[in-house]
């Protein structure tokens, strides 16, 4: 199952609105087929693994990170494909909460004589599927807030100079972070002041993330879609509303990269699920620009709380990752 989860991660940021799923077929102790959800969401992981295995799938065990789909959409149900292939056993990590599935995939397999085991590596699978689960269960994508700052939490000098607070290795890591998100979001002031590319660079031919600018004002002249940049969407209004709108458009994972007013609004609304910080070993002082705007807190008990899940040295900087408590 951990092999299947590693395959599933290859689809993160590349398969929305579908979930990123991995599938491994094992027969007589050997892997005979493996697959993961392909760009744009199809073919599904099970279809890829079955095509690779061919006749070797008969009598095999399928390890799938999410319950096989049970509904007829643009492709036939994967649960029925597993039955037709003669798979003997299916092991899944998560039940699919999508109302079109929600146990129906497992219900197709069992009457066909296929042994089904559920909940294997469930916690790890939930982490991989966090965005998809958020869109189905909460109606919005999961949101990561990224901040690159000095030791004292400043993102620029008082005059606005910010390039570069963190080193090249941390900036490359941010590219990998963008790769596993469907979209990158900034506020209108950041878009007008910095004209950020919000794209993937130096990673070869990849599906570029959607660029989201939160603003009611006209946007600056930003690069057009198809010139090494993804689609450009402008949203406005209450964070709760535009996040639901993004979920309705199919997004599952959004990375917010600024600015401070937008970050504060998202935190106040309780919409930030994950914090990723890059801390550099320099101090800019109180006249430096804060990375997050005013939250209007009177008590510590009202502050948004997150729990540390990862810390890592990246070049001269430190990356730390936190999940909402």
Give a description of the structure.
This protein is an alpha/beta fold. The chain has two domains: about 1-130, Cytidine Deaminase, domain 2 (3-Layer(aba) Sandwich), CATH 3.40.140.10; about 140-325, Dihydrofolate Reductase, subunit A. The protein contains ten helices and 15 strands. β4, α4 (about 105-110) and β5 (about 115) form a beta-alpha-beta unit. It starts with a helix and ends with a strand. The model has no long low-confidence stretch (mean pLDDT about 95).
What's the arrangement of secondary structure elements?
Elements: H1 2-9, E1 22-27, E2 30-36, H2 45-53, E3 61-64, H3 78-85, E4 89-92, H4 104-109, E5 115-117, H5 122-128, H6 130-138, E6 142-149, E7 154-156, H7 168-179, E8 183-187, H8 188-194, E9 210-214, E10 232-235, H9 239-248, E11 253-256, H10 260-268, E12 274-279, E13 289-290, E14 306-314, E15 317-324
Parallel strand pairs: 3-4, 4-5, 6-11, 6-12, 8-9, 8-11, 9-10
Antiparallel strand pairs: 1-2, 1-3, 7-13, 12-15, 14-15
Protein name: Riboflavin biosynthesis protein RibD
Domain CMP/dCMP-type deaminase: 1-117
Binding site for Zn(2+): 44, 69, 78
